[in-house]
Specification:
This protein has about 900 residues and is of the alpha+beta class. About 35% of the residues lie in helices and about 20% in strands.
């Protein structure tokens, strides 16, 4: 497969040059799929699977590979540089532990699990010394349980999961063992060489088989403790494994969820089957890519695939399966088989449809000679499936009956028609027809998904994918109707995605989604109304000031709606710049009954004399929109107060007079330090203190989040939390509309005065990129449960906990690793975060850098640079000062804030 992939790529470079370009995944998904005939043509690894319970962002049209590919990617990303190929088995789903163990350096690294000897006997088994379980002593292929127990007295053993990492040296040995001349790979004659049973016995310090070419390779095993794997090799295993995965809950497979009814062993997907009567037992039913009348009733142990629309009225006995295989432009082959058929052995003695194949021929008066089939023919190669354009219920009944009625016309048809073997069906199937039917039926099923969305996984699936499937139907555009804000948000986003998929304008629906989210968050502040009454003395000035934040990990997980559904986690630090709090707000009483807002850094001011001047704050970038929204939330607008005042004059009279505020944000626009949100929180705190509310930090935090939504910017909470709360900290929220932060402070040594501005550098790139466009795009992905977005967001949230642990250990190398990984995760979520200009800066200092990341949504603003050592930091400073990317770029001193938000009065 590797050689074929290299040749398919053009072969412009040598094979091993190609192999070294990037790490690759090889799926062993070939074979004839004798025991799972329904997916022989496409391969078991591409078989459709349903959305899993508890999952988020899975696709309606997902395959078995889709379920596993994120884990394989994680293995490759965390593997040593020497690893170049990950080999995986296509008929196994391997559930990884929550934390992937460290992967050692070796030519061949296997991944093993702890199982009983009775389970291990059917697989390869790694044996290791008890004190060094990563070391391979030897490898046995399918050892007997007694032998395993004997060896386990002084060794650990791990069953081979089929997941192997190979170095280039291991690939070279494998190629040579396959009979290919390494010097002439493209023309080499290849012979069969079994990877696991061929290489396995020659691995380890005490190999079972001596093979100089293999024994020189180093080997290791990674024990996946707490993992489990599920087989998809047979029809029965397919259903059993899916049910085991569906019924699994957090905490491991051994946990039982007493509150959730187990998933029945019945699966209907990509199908038009509105069955009227459910079975009592739901015992082992699989219906996929089928169109069946509502009256149709399976019994038990039935797998139905590929059945086209028809008035199907045949009785389906227990244990009988049907696969309709499209052949050519219009013909069809009906493949009946037994639920546990293995399709192996001579047809004269093999089983077919759960009983001796000979009995089927005998019951219809057909001899193998009449059928032109030699008795010794392997049943997989026997031509027993008729290709026809006329399939009726009577024909199917005759095919599957144990004792069929005498139907001479069917007998004649069977003998005279073109017939194909199971092997030939896999070769001759018209995959385009098969996929076209599946796509059409999936679109019909997606309509029912929408219609019954409150009782199915609709609000958890990848709605962008679901919308594309739905758009293929003739159903009208969905109409959002939920009264629950988060559900309505998803509904509106889905409707907009359907409209776009059909070539129409979906902007109106998307605006509705943003409005549903914003309105609910803002309403929570309106439900806690306030009536401000001045606490300021006539000549007194209130001074509120805050640091800005530098984020280390977790940014984006704090953004609604992700944090509302899943909770967020961020590690950041509050910092002062050049010895000063960069965000400051001054407030004092005015002799005039009005609100006066000044911006010191912008050199502008606005006079508010009526409520209309405060309203319409939703235009992002509008003059003083942030300050106006803050005044509204502080009770200077009727929506957020409870005394019945309807004019600004009445409100200011109750307050005790006019109010003047002056604001200073001493950072450049688009700095990436969360300045606007910190300014919002600081202004809200100043107004709260002036109005006598006694708001604590949590209330300021929540109202700042509402303010972001009023501005339609849809931002998260980490910026204001970073400024409100001092020092270095992990900030977490739980799922729910009301986001209440839990703060855990961390030791400050790594970014304290000993290292800050010495090996930890803060650099303003001089590049401005407003986060609004990026934010809307990523929030849209959250609305739609976009699988790519969610995968990265969950990884980003988990990474915050890794960062917490690294800082808690006061590990400089750990912190550098955290910053590097944060940058990689941000790039994965938004590739545009690393613009060519930013990439040029990173390249310029790469030789001396241990970790670096931009501190905002990306594309510009400030950059945190962690140098390898003091000498490297000096070289970074010298390089960027002598060759700056633009005239605005500069280093800025920072220091940890010991206070966070402060309010004082003159």
């Amino acid at each position: 497969m590797l050689i074929d992939a290299w040749l398919a790529g053009g072969g412009g470079e040598s094979f091993f040059e190609w192999l070294g370009q990037r790490k690759r995944l090889v799926m062993l998904a070939g074979g004839q799929s004798r025991r799972l005939p329904a997916y022989a043509a496409t391969g078991k690894v591409l078989m459709p699977v349903p959305v899993m319970n508890g999952s988020h962002g899975q696709r309606l049209d997902q395959s078995l590979l889709d379920l596993q590919v994120a884990d394989y990617r994680t293995v490759l990303e965390n593997s040593p540089d020497s690893a170049c190929v990950l080999v995986a088995s296509g008929d196994v789903f391997l559930r990884f532990p929550e934390n992937l163990p460290a992967i050692p350096e070796a030519d061949i690294v296997g991944f093993g699990m702890s199982v009983s000897p009775e389970v291990a006997k059917d697989f390869g088994v790694f044996f290791s010394p008890r004190d060094t379980p990563n070391t391979v002593s030897f490898f046995l292929q399918k050892p007997e349980p007694g032998r395993i127990r004997e060896l386990a007295r002084d060794r650990e053993y791990f069953v081979d999961t089929g997941l192997w990492l190979l170095s280039a040296r291991a690939v070279a040995a494998l190629i040579k063992k396959s009979g290919v001349d390494e010097a002439n790979i493209a023309r080499g004659v290849r012979s069969h060489y079994e990877l696991y049973s061929g290489m396995g016995p020659s691995l380890g310090a005490e190999p079972m088989e001596s093979d100089p070419e293999i024994s020189t390779l180093t080997s290791a095993v990674v024990p996946l403790r707490g993992a489990d794997f599920h087989h998809f090799g047979t029809t029965r295993q397919m259903i059993e494994s899916l049910s085991a995965l569906q019924n699994r809950v957090a905490g491991g497979p051994e946990r039982i969820d007493l509150w959730r009814k187990p998933h029945p062993d019945m699966y209907v997907l990509n199908a038009d089957f509105r069955f009227h009567k459910r079975l009592a037992s739901h015992e082992m039913i699989w219906i996929e890519n089928c169109s069946l009348p509502g009256e149709f009733q399976p019994t038990a142990e039935n797998a139905l695939t590929g059945i086209p629309p028809g008035d199907w009225a045949f009785d389906l006995p227990r244990g009988i399966c049907l696969d309709f295989v499209p052949i050519g432009d219009s013909a069809m082959a009906v493949r009946p088989y037994g639920f546990d058929d293995s399709f192996s052995g001579p047809i004269s003695s093999a089983h077919w449809m759960g009983r001796p194949a000979a009995a089927w021929f005998e019951a219809r008066g057909i001899s193998l000679e009449d059928a032109r089939i030699a008795p010794e023919t392997d049943i997989q190669e026997a031509a027993i499936f008729v290709v026809t354009e006329d399939v009726s219920s009577e024909w199917i009944s005759w095919l599957i009956a144990t004792n069929p009625e005498a139907r001479p016309e069917f007998l004649e048809q069977w003998l005279a028609s073109r017939r194909l073997s199971a092997s030939q069906l896999a070769q001759d199937v018209n995959l385009a027809r098969l996929f076209r039917q599946r796509g059409h039926l999936a679109s019909l099923a997606s309509v029912r998904l929408w219609e019954h969305r409150n009782t199915n996984p609709f609000f958890r699936v990848d709605l962008e994918n679901a919308a594309a499937v739905y758009a293929g139907s003739q159903a009208p555009l969905p109409e959002p109707s939920s009264s629950r804000a988060v559900d309505r948000m998803h509904e509106a986003a889905f409707a907009g995605a359907v409209a776009r998929a059909r070539g129409a304008d979906g902007d109106g629906f998307e605006k509705e989604a943003f409005h549903a989210l914003a309105d609910r968050i803002v309403s929570m502040s309106a439900e806690r109304p306030v009536v401000p009454r001045t606490t300021l003395i006539e000549d007194q000035i209130l001074w509120a000031r805050s640091p800005v934040r530098l984020d280390l990990a977790g940014g984006w997980s704090d953004t609604p709606p992700f944090c509302l559904k899943h909770g967020g986690a961020v590690v950041n630090l509050a910092v002062e710049l050049n010895g000063q709090a960069p965000v400051q707000v001054f407030a004092r009483m005015s002799r005039h009954r009005r609100i006066l807002i000044r911006s010191i850094d912008l050199g502008a001011e606005a006079v508010i004399q009526n409520l209309s001047d405060l309203e319409g704050v939703s235009e992002i970038g509008g003059e003083f929109a942030l300050a106006k929204a803050a005044f509204c939330l502080a009770g200077f607008h009727p929506r957020f107060r409870c005394d019945g005042a309807t004019t600004l004059d009445e409100i200011l009279e109750a307050f005790g007079g006019g109010l003047e505020v002056s604001m200073l944000a001493a950072t450049p626009k688009g700095s990436g330090l969360g300045t606007s949100s910190v300014l919002a929180a600081t202004l809200l705190a100043a107004l709260g203190s002036s109005g006598g509310f006694g708001w604590d930090n949590e209330e300021v935090f929540q109202r700042a989040l509402a303010l972001e939504q009023m501005l339609t910017s849809g931002g998260g909470w980490q910026d204001q939390a970073g400024g409100i709360y001092h020092g270095i900290k992990l900030i977490e929220t739980s799922p729910g509309l009301e986001q209440s932060p839990t703060v855990k402070w961390l030791p400050e040594h790594l970014l304290g005065p000993q290292l800050a501005n010495h090996v930890a550098l803060l650099y303003y790139t001089g590049i401005t990129r407003v986060a609004q466009t990026i934010l809307r795009e990523i929030v849209r992905g959250m609305f739609l449960n976009n699988g790519h977005h969610l995968e990265n967001l969950f990884a980003i949230r988990a990474h915050a906990l890794t960062a917490y642990q690294a800082v808690q250990r006061e590990s400089w190398d750990g912190l550098c690793s955290v910053v590097r990984k944060s940058w990689e995760l941000n790039e994965a979520l938004d590739p545009g975060t690393n613009t060519p200009e930013v990439a040029a800066i990173l390249r310029q200092i790469s030789d001396w850098t241990a970790g670096a990341k931009l501190l905002g949504a990306g594309g510009g603003g400030y950059m945190l640079i962690l140098a390898k050592d003091l000498q490297a930091a000096a070289k970074i400073r010298r390089s960027l000062q002598e060759f700056p990317p633009n005239p605005r770029a500069r280093f800025v001193d920072f220091s940890l804030s010991a206070t966070g938000l402060q309010i004082t009065r003159s």
